[in-house]
Amino acid sequence: MSILSRKTRQTAALDWDERNRALVALINAGRIDEALAPAQELVDYVDRRFRRDSRKKATTYNNMGMVFMLSGDHELAEECFRDALEMRKRIFGRDHQEVAVILLNMAHLYKLMAGRILKETAVEAD
Residue 46: which of 2, 87, 97, 5 has the closest Cα? Predict the structure, then answer.
């Protein structure tokens, strides 16, 4: 590996760290509308900069799933979580805590989806 190649990868990793911290701060502050654009930009960034099965890419897809879930776009959240789950399974194996984190996020998503369906069907039954 050339020095230039290593330097480029280090720069990309530092850039990702900074962008990811900013995104997580927006999510944690509940500023979901503001998080949508930076989250999408970060997904585009990792798709260009990182290999297919990268920890940073899997984390980015998980965070994008969180943004979609919290904004109410459950179908896109599920898609992002599934992509993150498959990446983490390939990276870590099926029985790793990083895989469990995605499964917990998906469980929360499915609970929200089920609650919405139950609420809608209860209104229709009245």
Answer: 87
**pTM for the full model?**
0.87
Distance of CA 101 to the CA centre of its chain: 11
**Domains, the chain, with CATH or none:** 3-125 (1.25.40.10)
Query: 20, 61 in Cβ contact below 8 A?
Result: no
Is residue 16 a contact partner of residue 56, using CB atoms and an 8 Å limit?
yes
CA pair distance 43, 63, nearest whole angstrom: 9
pLDDT tens digits, one per residue of 33-85: 999 999 999 999 999 998 889 999 999 999 999 999 999 999 999 999 999 99
Instruction: Compute the radius of gyration of the chain from its Cα atoms.
Output: 17
